[in-house]
């Protein structure tokens, strides 16, 4: 029998893992500048955490969740997204308390799970980098979060970015718009897709988000939410737009954008990148918005929140397509060639000593002939090659070659052990 990874999952091999680490560490450094701190929450949560927050008419909850009953008959879900778990943790750990400075700014990275039809940039296990900020309604925070997302993508070398924003207003806005949308869609009930028929009365905004072509045609002429904004909502949105202009961040308003999760209100946004190499039009890499009712929904005190999620696989595809710089596995500092069985314990001591000094070092473990060991050193791109044979061992020296210059010298073993960084560190600068 042949074993294969489950459909929609991927192995991240060492060469690619370097790129992942680079993306994550770049994000972490940037988030630190914005004073967002890391939170790690469980990869599975109780089912209700998601059904309650994402909304039980969302695609995620109705179609895409990996949920099961565990041996104790608890209804468990592998997290399909990061926000709900972070909000659950925010409430459970009372991060709303007075000892926590507001806004509480958090970020996370990790795997998410959705039962979707796998295709390029769409997997069943995928990874997100996400941020959440709690405790401020200020439009400044909306713009900071958006700017941080743009900043990260630019820093990683993505160009042709497009920022699309919309507002879902407040509760009164949603209520008025909901009625208007139902009034518009009802006469077309028979033309709607099955999903949209179900959603029409439960959650008509969902219909705007339908992937069905005929639904999309209908929706094109639907009333615009921008005509139903309360004065407060309109003013929040105006300020967000003005602040984006202040920061010279270009944007487009798409009044039909609603986003996949039910919990959003006020500002929502998507950052897309256009790259023909991916064979499609705009690809959304980063998406988010405000969710002012969510903390309450999960049992906490009324607390506004805003955040985004960024898909790492899609980001990496874009980086590759746009030829953004990506690091590779770092070259080897020192390769130690041992000739003859008698040298084995000494070469082991040498590699361990050099490693203890903070340099990367390797040696032969396969009893290769000297010529083959030198070849290996070459293939590993070693900066320094140290050679130790029986003669050297007897004289307590090694032969040391700096590969960049070809310079060779005899070095006392004692110096390798006691003075390596001082004598040779200059050849190994990172
Ligand atoms: P889509 O409309 O493409 O299904 P979504 O609205 O479901 O996206 P979000 O829930 O907003 O996506 O997730 C934020 C980001 O996470 C997306 O912009 C994308 O980059 C990434 N993402 C979402 N689902 C997947 C997936 N199945 N595989 C890979 N990346 C994903
Ligand atoms: Mg989706």
From TrEMBL:
UniProt similarity note: Belongs to the class-II aminoacyl-tRNA synthetase family.
Signal peptide (UniProt feature, chain positions): none
Subunit: Homodimer.
GO molecular function: ATP binding; catalytic activity, acting on a protein; histidine-tRNA ligase activity; transferase activity
UniProt KW keywords: Aminoacyl-tRNA synthetase, ATP-binding, Cytoplasm, Ligase, Nucleotide-binding, Protein biosynthesis
Catalyzed reaction equations: tRNA(His) + L-histidine + ATP = L-histidyl-tRNA(His) + AMP + diphosphate + H(+)
Residues binding L-histidine: 81-83, 114, 128, 132, 259, 263-264
One CC-aspect GO term: cytoplasm
Main location: cytoplasm
PANTHER family, per database record: HISTIDINE--TRNA LIGASE, MITOCHONDRIAL-RELATED, HISTIDYL-TRNA SYNTHETASE
Any Gene Ontology biological process: histidyl-tRNA aminoacylation
Annotated localization: Cytoplasm
Protein name, entry field: Histidine--tRNA ligase
Domain Aminoacyl-transfer RNA synthetases class-II family profile span(s) in chain numbering: 8-327
Higher taxonomy: Bacteria, Bacillati, Bacillota, Bacilli, Lactobacillales
Broad enzyme group: ligase
EC number: 6.1.1.21
């Amino acid at each position: 029998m042949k074993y294969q990874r489950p459909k929609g999952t991927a192995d991240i091999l060492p060469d690619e893992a370097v790129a992942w680490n680079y993306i994550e560490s770049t994000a972490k450094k940037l988030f630190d500048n914005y004073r967002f701190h890391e939170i790690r929450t469980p990869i599975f949560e109780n089912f209700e955490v998601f059904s309650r927050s994402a909304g039980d008419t969302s695609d995620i909850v109705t179609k895409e969740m990996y949920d099961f009953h565990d041996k104790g008959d608890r209804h468990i879900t592998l997290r399909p997204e990061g926000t709900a778990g972070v909000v659950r943790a925010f409430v459970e750990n009372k991060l709303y308390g007075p000892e926590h400075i507001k806004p509480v700014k958090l970020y996370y990275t990790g795997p998410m799970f959705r039962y979707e039809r796998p295709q390029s940039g769409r997997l069943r296990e995928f990874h997100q980098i996400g941020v959440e900020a709690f405790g401020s309604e200020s439009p400044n925070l909306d713009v900071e979060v958006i700017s941080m997302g743009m900043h990260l993508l630019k820093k990683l070398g993505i160009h042709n970015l497009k920022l699309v924003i919309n507002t879902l207003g407040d509760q009164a806005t949603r209520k008025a718009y909901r009625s208007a949308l139902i009034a518009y869609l009802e006469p077309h009930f028979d033309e709607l897709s099955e999903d949209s028929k179900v959603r029409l009365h439960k959650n008509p905004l969902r219909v705007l988000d339908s992937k069905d072509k005929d639904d999309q045609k209908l929706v094109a002429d639907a009333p615009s939410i921008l005509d139903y904004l309360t004065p407060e909502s309109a003013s929040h949105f105006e300020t967000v737009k003005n602040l984006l202009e202040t920061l010279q961040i270009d944007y487009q308003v798409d009044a039909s954008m609603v986003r996949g999760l039910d919990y959003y209100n006020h500002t929502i946004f998507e950052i897309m990148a256009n790259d023909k190499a991916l064979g499609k039009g705009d690809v959304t890499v980063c998406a988010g918005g405000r969710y002012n009712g969510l903390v309450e929904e999960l049992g906490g005190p009324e607390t506004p929140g805003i955040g985004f999620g960024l898909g790492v696989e899609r980001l990496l595809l874009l980086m590759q397509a746009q030829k953004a710089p990506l690091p590779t596995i770092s070259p080897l500092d020192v390769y130690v060639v041992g000739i003859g069985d008698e040298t084995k314990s000494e070469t082991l001591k040498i590699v361990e000593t050099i490693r203890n000094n903070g340099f990367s070092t390797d040696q032969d473990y396969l009893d290769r002939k000297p010529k083959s060991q030198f070849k290996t050193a070459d293939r590993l791109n070693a900066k320094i090659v140290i050679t130790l044979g029986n003669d050297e061992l007897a004289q307590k020296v090694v032969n040391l070659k700096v590969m960049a210059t070809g310079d060779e010298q005899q070095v006392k073993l004692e110096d390798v052990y006691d003075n390596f960084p001082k004598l040779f560190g200059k050849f190994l600068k990172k």
